[in-house]
Give the backbone structure.
Amino acid sequence: MTVTEHTTRNGVDTATLFATLDAVRGDTELAKFQFRATNRWLAGTHNQSTIHGFHGAKQDMTHQQPFTFDADHPAVLVGNDNGPTPVEYLLHALAACLTAGIANVAAARGVTLSEVSSTVEGDIDLLGILGLSNEVRNGYQRIRVAFTLRGDDPEKLRAVVEQSRRRSAVFDVLTNGVPVSVDVSTD
Amino acid sequence: MTVTEHTTRNGVDTATLFATLDAVRGDTELAKFQFRATNRWLAGTHNQSTIHGFHGAKQDMTHQQPFTFDADHPAVLVGNDNGPTPVEYLLHALAACLTAGIANVAAARGVTLSEVSSTVEGDIDLLGILGLSNEVRNGYQRIRVAFTLRGDDPEKLRAVVEQSRRRSAVFDVLTNGVPVSVDVSTD
Protein backbone atom coordinates (compact mmCIF):
# COMPACT_ATOMS: atom_id res chain seq x y z
CA MET A 1 0.00 0.00 0.00
CA THR A 2 1.27 3.40 -0.93
CA VAL A 3 0.52 6.37 1.23
CA THR A 4 0.28 9.50 -0.86
CA GLU A 5 0.65 12.74 0.95
CA HIS A 6 -1.97 15.23 -0.17
CA THR A 7 -1.30 18.65 1.26
CA THR A 8 -4.32 20.79 0.61
CA ARG A 9 -4.61 24.37 1.79
CA ASN A 10 -7.50 26.69 0.95
CA GLY A 11 -8.74 23.97 -1.39
CA VAL A 12 -5.47 24.12 -3.35
CA ASP A 13 -3.63 20.83 -3.76
CA THR A 14 -0.21 22.31 -3.06
CA ALA A 15 1.66 19.03 -3.62
CA THR A 16 0.29 18.86 -7.17
CA LEU A 17 0.87 22.60 -7.62
CA PHE A 18 4.55 22.28 -6.75
CA ALA A 19 4.90 19.09 -8.84
CA THR A 20 3.39 20.94 -11.81
CA LEU A 21 5.85 23.78 -11.37
CA ASP A 22 8.72 21.29 -11.29
CA ALA A 23 7.46 19.53 -14.43
CA VAL A 24 7.24 22.83 -16.32
CA ARG A 25 10.69 23.88 -15.11
CA GLY A 26 11.99 20.64 -16.63
CA ASP A 27 10.20 21.12 -19.96
CA THR A 28 9.10 24.66 -20.69
CA GLU A 29 7.16 23.56 -23.80
CA LEU A 30 4.52 22.27 -21.38
CA ALA A 31 3.67 25.89 -20.57
CA LYS A 32 2.49 26.79 -24.08
CA PHE A 33 -1.30 26.96 -24.07
CA GLN A 34 -3.95 28.04 -26.53
CA PHE A 35 -7.44 28.79 -25.29
CA ARG A 36 -10.47 29.00 -27.59
CA ALA A 37 -14.06 30.12 -27.75
CA THR A 38 -16.58 29.77 -30.55
CA ASN A 39 -19.48 32.17 -30.88
CA ARG A 40 -22.75 32.10 -32.79
CA TRP A 41 -25.04 35.04 -33.43
CA LEU A 42 -28.66 34.35 -32.46
CA ALA A 43 -30.61 37.59 -33.07
CA GLY A 44 -30.01 41.28 -32.49
CA THR A 45 -27.33 41.75 -29.85
CA HIS A 46 -27.92 38.22 -28.47
CA ASN A 47 -25.18 35.69 -29.16
CA GLN A 48 -23.74 32.63 -27.48
CA SER A 49 -20.21 31.34 -26.95
CA THR A 50 -19.07 27.80 -26.29
CA ILE A 51 -15.83 27.06 -24.47
CA HIS A 52 -14.67 23.47 -24.57
CA GLY A 53 -11.38 22.52 -26.25
CA PHE A 54 -7.95 23.97 -25.59
CA HIS A 55 -4.36 23.07 -26.20
CA GLY A 56 -1.79 22.78 -23.45
CA ALA A 57 0.97 20.60 -22.04
CA LYS A 58 1.69 19.47 -25.63
CA GLN A 59 -1.76 18.02 -26.23
CA ASP A 60 -5.29 18.89 -27.30
CA MET A 61 -7.54 18.77 -24.29
CA THR A 62 -11.14 19.57 -23.39
CA HIS A 63 -12.89 20.80 -20.32
CA GLN A 64 -14.94 18.07 -18.63
CA GLN A 65 -17.99 19.60 -20.31
CA PRO A 66 -18.63 22.35 -22.85
CA PHE A 67 -19.53 25.65 -21.17
CA THR A 68 -21.95 27.99 -22.97
CA PHE A 69 -22.55 31.66 -22.22
CA ASP A 70 -25.10 34.10 -23.56
CA ALA A 71 -24.34 37.76 -24.08
CA ASP A 72 -26.86 40.45 -24.94
CA HIS A 73 -27.66 44.08 -24.28
CA PRO A 74 -30.26 45.12 -21.71
CA ALA A 75 -33.43 46.88 -22.90
CA VAL A 76 -31.93 50.33 -22.22
CA LEU A 77 -29.28 49.44 -24.81
CA VAL A 78 -31.81 48.08 -27.30
CA GLY A 79 -31.33 44.40 -26.48
CA ASN A 80 -33.41 41.67 -24.88
CA ASP A 81 -31.28 41.08 -21.77
CA ASN A 82 -30.67 37.38 -22.45
CA GLY A 83 -27.27 37.68 -20.77
CA PRO A 84 -24.77 40.21 -19.48
CA THR A 85 -23.17 42.64 -21.87
CA PRO A 86 -19.76 41.64 -23.28
CA VAL A 87 -17.99 44.29 -21.19
CA GLU A 88 -19.43 42.87 -17.97
CA TYR A 89 -17.72 39.55 -18.73
CA LEU A 90 -14.40 41.43 -18.62
CA LEU A 91 -15.10 42.42 -15.00
CA HIS A 92 -15.91 38.82 -14.10
CA ALA A 93 -12.73 37.60 -15.82
CA LEU A 94 -10.63 40.08 -13.86
CA ALA A 95 -12.15 39.20 -10.48
CA ALA A 96 -11.89 35.48 -11.24
CA CYS A 97 -8.23 35.64 -12.29
CA LEU A 98 -7.10 37.69 -9.31
CA THR A 99 -9.10 35.47 -6.93
CA ALA A 100 -7.69 32.22 -8.31
CA GLY A 101 -4.23 33.74 -8.02
CA ILE A 102 -4.88 34.76 -4.43
CA ALA A 103 -5.86 31.19 -3.57
CA ASN A 104 -2.78 29.72 -5.26
CA VAL A 105 -0.30 32.24 -3.86
CA ALA A 106 -1.77 31.92 -0.37
CA ALA A 107 -1.53 28.13 -0.52
CA ALA A 108 2.05 28.25 -1.78
CA ARG A 109 3.00 30.62 1.05
CA GLY A 110 1.11 28.73 3.73
CA VAL A 111 -1.32 31.61 4.26
CA THR A 112 -4.82 30.60 5.35
CA LEU A 113 -7.86 32.24 3.78
CA SER A 114 -11.39 32.18 5.16
CA GLU A 115 -12.94 34.70 2.77
CA VAL A 116 -12.05 36.35 -0.52
CA SER A 117 -14.76 38.50 -2.04
CA SER A 118 -14.58 41.38 -4.47
CA THR A 119 -16.55 43.98 -6.35
CA VAL A 120 -15.38 45.20 -9.73
CA GLU A 121 -16.68 48.40 -11.30
CA GLY A 122 -16.00 49.66 -14.81
CA ASP A 123 -16.83 53.17 -15.97
CA ILE A 124 -17.71 53.57 -19.63
CA ASP A 125 -19.04 56.50 -21.61
CA LEU A 126 -21.10 55.09 -24.46
CA LEU A 127 -20.63 58.18 -26.62
CA GLY A 128 -17.65 56.25 -28.02
CA ILE A 129 -19.32 53.04 -29.16
CA LEU A 130 -22.44 54.92 -30.25
CA GLY A 131 -20.26 56.89 -32.65
CA LEU A 132 -21.36 60.19 -31.11
CA SER A 133 -17.90 61.38 -30.10
CA ASN A 134 -14.41 60.86 -31.45
CA GLU A 135 -12.85 62.09 -28.23
CA VAL A 136 -14.38 59.37 -26.06
CA ARG A 137 -12.79 55.93 -26.18
CA ASN A 138 -14.94 52.88 -26.93
CA GLY A 139 -13.94 50.86 -23.88
CA TYR A 140 -13.85 51.36 -20.14
CA GLN A 141 -12.17 54.52 -18.94
CA ARG A 142 -11.16 52.89 -15.68
CA ILE A 143 -11.79 49.73 -13.68
CA ARG A 144 -11.72 49.45 -9.89
CA VAL A 145 -11.40 46.20 -7.97
CA ALA A 146 -12.18 46.17 -4.24
CA PHE A 147 -11.21 43.01 -2.37
CA THR A 148 -12.20 41.89 1.10
CA LEU A 149 -9.99 39.18 2.54
CA ARG A 150 -10.20 37.39 5.86
CA GLY A 151 -8.06 34.67 7.35
CA ASP A 152 -4.43 35.15 8.23
CA ASP A 153 -2.54 38.25 9.32
CA PRO A 154 -3.72 41.35 7.34
CA GLU A 155 -0.21 42.16 6.15
CA LYS A 156 0.22 38.66 4.73
CA LEU A 157 -3.18 38.87 3.06
CA ARG A 158 -2.27 42.16 1.37
CA ALA A 159 1.03 40.73 0.16
CA VAL A 160 -0.82 37.76 -1.34
CA VAL A 161 -3.16 40.07 -3.29
CA GLU A 162 -0.20 42.08 -4.55
CA GLN A 163 1.60 38.95 -5.76
CA SER A 164 -1.57 37.71 -7.46
CA ARG A 165 -1.91 41.06 -9.26
CA ARG A 166 1.71 40.88 -10.38
CA ARG A 167 1.14 37.43 -11.92
CA SER A 168 -2.42 37.76 -13.20
CA ALA A 169 -2.97 36.99 -16.88
CA VAL A 170 -6.21 38.97 -17.07
CA PHE A 171 -4.79 41.95 -15.18
CA ASP A 172 -1.89 42.01 -17.65
CA VAL A 173 -4.16 41.82 -20.71
CA LEU A 174 -6.56 44.48 -19.42
CA THR A 175 -3.88 46.93 -18.32
CA ASN A 176 -1.31 46.41 -21.08
CA GLY A 177 -3.37 45.28 -24.05
CA VAL A 178 -2.63 42.50 -26.51
CA PRO A 179 -2.43 42.34 -30.32
CA VAL A 180 -5.78 41.15 -31.75
CA SER A 181 -6.29 40.17 -35.38
CA VAL A 182 -9.75 39.92 -36.96
CA ASP A 183 -10.23 37.84 -40.13
CA VAL A 184 -13.45 37.56 -42.10
CA SER A 185 -14.67 34.81 -44.39
CA THR A 186 -17.82 35.32 -46.45
CA ASP A 187 -17.72 32.12 -48.50
CA MET B 1 -55.83 53.25 -32.24
CA THR B 2 -52.19 54.07 -32.73
CA VAL B 3 -50.16 52.26 -35.30
CA THR B 4 -46.54 52.03 -34.18
CA GLU B 5 -44.03 51.25 -36.85
CA HIS B 6 -41.52 48.67 -35.68
CA THR B 7 -38.71 48.27 -38.13
CA THR B 8 -36.75 45.20 -37.16
CA ARG B 9 -33.79 43.91 -39.13
CA ASN B 10 -31.58 41.00 -38.07
CA GLY B 11 -33.49 41.00 -34.80
CA VAL B 12 -32.43 44.60 -34.13
CA ASP B 13 -35.23 47.07 -33.43
CA THR B 14 -33.76 49.83 -35.59
CA ALA B 15 -36.50 52.34 -34.76
CA THR B 16 -35.61 52.08 -31.06
CA LEU B 17 -31.90 52.07 -31.90
CA PHE B 18 -32.16 55.36 -33.80
CA ALA B 19 -34.45 56.86 -31.13
CA THR B 20 -31.87 55.92 -28.49
CA LEU B 21 -29.10 57.58 -30.50
CA ASP B 22 -31.25 60.73 -30.81
CA ALA B 23 -31.98 60.77 -27.07
CA VAL B 24 -28.27 60.46 -26.21
CA ARG B 25 -27.37 63.15 -28.73
CA GLY B 26 -29.80 65.43 -26.88
CA ASP B 27 -28.42 64.59 -23.42
CA THR B 28 -24.95 63.10 -23.41
CA GLU B 29 -25.15 62.36 -19.65
CA LEU B 30 -27.39 59.42 -20.62
CA ALA B 31 -24.31 57.71 -22.09
CA LYS B 32 -22.42 57.44 -18.79
CA PHE B 33 -22.61 53.84 -17.62
CA GLN B 34 -21.02 51.85 -14.83
CA PHE B 35 -21.01 48.06 -15.02
CA ARG B 36 -20.34 45.83 -12.01
CA ALA B 37 -19.54 42.28 -11.01
CA THR B 38 -19.18 40.77 -7.57
CA ASN B 39 -17.08 37.69 -7.01
CA ARG B 40 -16.81 35.17 -4.21
CA TRP B 41 -14.04 32.65 -3.70
CA LEU B 42 -15.33 29.09 -3.18
CA ALA B 43 -12.24 26.83 -2.93
CA GLY B 44 -8.91 26.53 -4.67
CA THR B 45 -9.10 28.22 -8.08
CA HIS B 46 -12.91 27.93 -8.12
CA ASN B 47 -14.84 31.18 -7.69
CA GLN B 48 -18.13 32.63 -8.81
CA SER B 49 -19.20 36.04 -10.08
CA THR B 50 -22.64 37.59 -10.05
CA ILE B 51 -23.64 40.26 -12.53
CA HIS B 52 -26.90 42.05 -11.81
CA GLY B 53 -26.95 45.80 -11.11
CA PHE B 54 -25.50 48.57 -13.23
CA HIS B 55 -25.84 52.31 -13.59
CA GLY B 56 -26.77 53.99 -16.84
CA ALA B 57 -29.04 56.60 -18.40
CA LYS B 58 -28.86 58.48 -15.08
CA GLN B 59 -30.35 55.69 -12.99
CA ASP B 60 -29.49 52.51 -11.12
CA MET B 61 -30.79 49.57 -13.07
CA THR B 62 -30.64 45.77 -12.92
CA HIS B 63 -30.66 43.03 -15.47
CA GLN B 64 -33.95 41.13 -15.54
CA GLN B 65 -32.22 38.47 -13.47
CA PRO B 66 -28.86 38.04 -11.75
CA PHE B 67 -26.40 36.11 -13.90
CA THR B 68 -23.82 33.90 -12.15
CA PHE B 69 -20.66 32.45 -13.67
CA ASP B 70 -18.15 29.98 -12.32
CA ALA B 71 -14.47 30.15 -13.12
CA ASP B 72 -11.88 27.51 -12.30
CA HIS B 73 -8.75 25.91 -13.65
CA PRO B 74 -8.83 22.52 -15.41
CA ALA B 75 -7.07 19.56 -13.79
CA VAL B 76 -3.92 20.14 -15.87
CA LEU B 77 -3.67 23.53 -14.15
CA VAL B 78 -4.37 22.10 -10.70
CA GLY B 79 -8.07 23.02 -10.55
CA ASN B 80 -11.33 21.11 -10.54
CA ASP B 81 -12.72 22.35 -13.89
CA ASN B 82 -15.92 23.79 -12.43
CA GLY B 83 -15.89 26.46 -15.12
CA PRO B 84 -13.71 27.98 -17.83
CA THR B 85 -10.50 29.72 -16.88
CA PRO B 86 -10.68 33.50 -16.44
CA VAL B 87 -8.71 34.09 -19.65
CA GLU B 88 -11.23 32.09 -21.70
CA TYR B 89 -13.94 34.53 -20.62
CA LEU B 90 -11.91 37.27 -22.32
CA LEU B 91 -12.23 35.41 -25.65
CA HIS B 92 -15.98 35.06 -25.18
CA ALA B 93 -16.29 38.77 -24.32
CA LEU B 94 -14.41 39.72 -27.47
CA ALA B 95 -16.48 37.51 -29.78
CA ALA B 96 -19.71 38.66 -28.14
CA CYS B 97 -18.89 42.36 -28.42
CA LEU B 98 -17.84 42.20 -32.06
CA THR B 99 -20.87 40.08 -32.93
CA ALA B 100 -23.36 42.40 -31.20
CA GLY B 101 -21.72 45.29 -33.03
CA ILE B 102 -21.99 43.47 -36.34
CA ALA B 103 -25.73 42.96 -35.80
CA ASN B 104 -26.27 46.62 -34.87
CA VAL B 105 -24.14 48.08 -37.64
CA ALA B 106 -25.72 45.79 -40.24
CA ALA B 107 -29.22 46.75 -39.10
CA ALA B 108 -28.39 50.46 -39.16
CA ARG B 109 -27.01 50.10 -42.69
CA GLY B 110 -29.83 47.92 -43.98
CA VAL B 111 -27.50 44.95 -44.45
CA THR B 112 -29.12 41.54 -44.01
CA LEU B 113 -27.34 38.80 -42.06
CA SER B 114 -28.15 35.12 -42.14
CA GLU B 115 -25.12 33.86 -40.19
CA VAL B 116 -22.42 35.31 -37.98
CA SER B 117 -20.12 32.80 -36.34
CA SER B 118 -16.62 33.10 -35.01
CA THR B 119 -13.72 31.31 -33.42
CA VAL B 120 -11.37 33.14 -31.09
CA GLU B 121 -7.95 31.77 -30.15
CA GLY B 122 -5.58 33.16 -27.56
CA ASP B 123 -1.95 32.06 -27.23
CA ILE B 124 -0.46 32.18 -23.78
CA ASP B 125 2.82 30.95 -22.37
CA LEU B 126 2.25 30.06 -18.73
CA LEU B 127 5.91 30.56 -17.81
CA GLY B 128 4.81 34.11 -16.99
CA ILE B 129 2.02 33.44 -14.50
CA LEU B 130 3.86 30.47 -13.04
CA GLY B 131 6.67 32.85 -12.13
CA LEU B 132 9.20 30.76 -14.09
CA SER B 133 10.30 33.52 -16.46
CA ASN B 134 10.54 37.27 -16.22
CA GLU B 135 10.80 37.60 -20.01
CA VAL B 136 7.40 36.05 -20.69
CA ARG B 137 4.34 38.23 -20.13
CA ASN B 138 1.53 36.98 -17.90
CA GLY B 139 -1.28 37.44 -20.40
CA TYR B 140 -2.03 36.38 -23.95
CA GLN B 141 0.70 37.03 -26.47
CA ARG B 142 -1.81 37.35 -29.28
CA ILE B 143 -5.49 36.78 -29.97
CA ARG B 144 -6.99 35.82 -33.34
CA VAL B 145 -10.65 36.20 -34.25
CA ALA B 146 -11.96 34.42 -37.35
CA PHE B 147 -15.46 35.39 -38.46
CA THR B 148 -17.73 33.69 -40.96
CA LEU B 149 -20.58 35.88 -42.22
CA ARG B 150 -23.37 35.06 -44.64
CA GLY B 151 -26.23 37.17 -45.91
CA ASP B 152 -25.75 40.25 -48.03
CA ASP B 153 -23.01 41.13 -50.49
CA PRO B 154 -19.53 40.02 -49.19
CA GLU B 155 -18.08 43.50 -49.49
CA LYS B 156 -20.87 44.95 -47.37
CA LEU B 157 -20.41 42.19 -44.81
CA ARG B 158 -16.69 42.90 -44.52
CA ALA B 159 -17.35 46.62 -44.11
CA VAL B 160 -19.82 45.85 -41.31
CA VAL B 161 -17.21 43.77 -39.43
CA GLU B 162 -14.65 46.55 -39.84
CA GLN B 163 -17.03 49.16 -38.44
CA SER B 164 -17.92 46.88 -35.53
CA ARG B 165 -14.22 46.45 -34.75
CA ARG B 166 -13.70 50.22 -34.85
CA ARG B 167 -16.49 50.74 -32.31
CA SER B 168 -16.08 47.69 -30.08
CA ALA B 169 -15.66 48.36 -26.38
CA VAL B 170 -14.01 45.00 -25.70
CA PHE B 171 -11.69 45.24 -28.71
CA ASP B 172 -10.58 48.66 -27.45
CA VAL B 173 -9.97 47.43 -23.90
CA LEU B 174 -8.09 44.32 -25.03
CA THR B 175 -5.89 46.07 -27.59
CA ASN B 176 -5.26 49.35 -25.79
CA GLY B 177 -5.55 48.47 -22.12
CA VAL B 178 -7.28 50.37 -19.36
CA PRO B 179 -6.19 51.66 -15.94
CA VAL B 180 -7.13 49.14 -13.23
CA SER B 181 -6.91 49.86 -9.49
CA VAL B 182 -6.93 47.11 -6.88
CA ASP B 183 -7.91 47.93 -3.29
CA VAL B 184 -7.81 45.52 -0.37
CA SER B 185 -9.77 45.53 2.87
CA THR B 186 -8.87 43.06 5.63
CA ASP B 187 -11.24 44.32 8.34
